[in-house]
Amino acid sequence: MSKRIDVSDLNVYYGDFLAVEDVSMTLDAKSVTAFIGPSGCGKSTFLRTLNRMHEVIPGARVEGKVLLDGDNLYADGVDPVTVRSQIGMVFQRPNPFPTMSIRDNVLAGVKLNSRRMAKSDADELVETSLRSANLWNEVKDRLGKPGSGLSGGQQQRLCIARAIAVSPDVILMDEPCSALDPISTLAIEDLINELKDEYTVVIVTHNMQQAARVSDRTAFFNIAGTGKPGRLIEFAETATIFNNPGQKSTEDYVSGRFG
Amino acid sequence: MAALMTERKRSALTRGRLPRYTPYVVAGSAIVVAAALMSLIGFNVFGWAVLSAVLFAAGNVACSALVEGRRKAMDKLATSVVAGAFLVALLPLVSVIWTVLVNGIPGLLAPGFLGTSMKGVTGTVDNASVTNHTPVLGGVYHAMLGSVLITLWATLISVPVGLLTSIYLVEYSADNKFSKVITFLVDVMTGIPSIVAGLFAAAFFGLVMGPGTKTGFVAAVALSVLMIPVVVRSSEEMLKIVPNELREAAYALGVRKWRTILKVVIPTAISGIASGVTLAIARVIGETAPLLVTAGFATQINSNVFAGWMASLPTFIYTQIMTPTSPSNPDPSAQRAWAAALLLILLVMLLNLGARLVASLFAPKTGR
């Protein structure tokens, strides 16, 4: 399953501070969209509004609409928990649950919600999720061991497996490779390429080569100055953004002439 | 190529260093000089040891200042001060343990001490055991049982209240005014003198159940007044150090907040919470004042905390010393009191060890 997301006229506030202003964009189903831009320009904040994770931060609120296949995430009576079970998220730092084994980490979405599951179904879910995250061969002999004993790159893939296991429609990734070495990064990038056959993937990255390698479309965010809101400057095919951008500031950023 | 340089006999790098044997020489002379000085003003071992230590520290620092320079001398001075402070802090502890061991072991080993109560042990019994040189009768079973039951009930009251309070403070309050008030009140509660907690419980149950109500449960309420702030504080700290990333990871999987707290946050913090609770228990099990006014003095076994007076180890010690069973022969009572004191120390020590065990049992597993 994979769904598209339509964002229209979205403003994000922290208290009175307008953090992201007036973003409209369409994220196609079964595609990879990359968000690039300087630090503090609101890419991560915007990403978190796509599954209402920003609400974890006190005072954060949103104006505007985010439609998941036509259903507004911010309509009255929408439970953020339902939203998050359909739109999964992978974070910057790998965060497997330290109290759980590798197997339990993959099953966390099921177990933490106390859903009953036959052991054979659980085994199958663990294997398919770990296989989709390209981690099965590395951990199949130690599923009972703690997830925190894996390397950073393996932990991040475990987190991706955990996100996949609840079968979301969309997977959001907030700089998933920024804490990883180049080889683990490559593993994750390959994985993202495979994931887009089944999921809508949105990735925030500071690495422009990575955006160029993995994404179909790229959104460039920028900020006019400290204290000003972040804005979506340009949103186009990745090739266009990197080779023939429409905006001067995009060109400056992707070619390294910014500041 | 130049020939390999041979190692110089006296390295330039070790210039200005005292030889290794210096501290031993200084220590030896300090002991001798101290002995000489003490013999002038009247010798005693304690003064001799203290004076030797002071002379040793001063001599060491002086030598260092002369040869090695200011930095090394300051280092030696600081080391002496730190080591001295450590020894001073250790002194009362060692002294207490030694005294209690010496005085307590005979009573603890007396037959039936752990298994019997004071029921039927009167002044005549004690007088008889002194005149006939028979073993001291009477035991602490009733007090031990009382201490354990009262503390157990205090724990049953304080842990849910304390843990839920800390969960509210950390997970739900978002630092609002109400949480600031709670934190302030918890801080105030931490400073409540234990006798006040006892009087509160006595007065409260006096109002509700009728005047003079003294049961184990009243004592448990008094102890929980002392225990709750400790539990709140320690669990709060433990919940705070659970990384936010784990909460976010659970939320991002579509897990509800209360389930996240129950199944991710608390399991991650459980080892710290458990050891905090155990230390809180160890803290209140030795309380005397609140028990004196709430549980009364019993000499017989009472396993019902809701009815009747109940003995406990601290009050047992207190009554045995202050009002010996046989006023003309207080020695058997003193022996029982020392033995009970030793037992109490052993209990607290076991609880502390238990806290460590619990912490390591519940700690998140590591390994590959």
From TrEMBL, chain B:
Keyword line: Cell membrane, Membrane, Phosphate transport, Transmembrane, Transmembrane helix, Transport
Report membrane topology: Multi-pass membrane protein
- The protein's superkingdom reads Bacteria
Q: Which residues form the ABC transmembrane type-1 domain?
A: 144-355
The entry's cellular-component GO terms read: plasma membrane
Concerning Pfam families, the annotation shows: BPD_transp_1
**What molecular functions are annotated in GO for this chain?**
phosphate transmembrane transporter activity
Q: Where in the cell is it found?
A: Cell membrane
| TM annotation in the entry | 21-41, 47-67, 79-101, 144-170, 182-209, 215-232, 264-285, 337-359
Instruction: Write down the Gene3D superfamilies for this protein, in alphabetical order.
Output: MetI-like
SUPFAM superfamilies listed in its UniProt record: MetI-like
One annotated GO biological process: phosphate ion transmembrane transport
Similarity-based family: Belongs to the binding-protein-dependent transport system permease family. CysTW subfamily.
Q: What does this protein do?
A: Part of the binding-protein-dependent transport system for phosphate; probably responsible for the translocation of the substrate across the membrane.
Supply the PANTHER family for this chain.
PHOSPHATE TRANSPORT SYSTEM PERMEASE PROTEIN PSTA
The name of this protein is Phosphate transport system permease protein PstA
Provenance organism: Arthrobacter wenxiniae
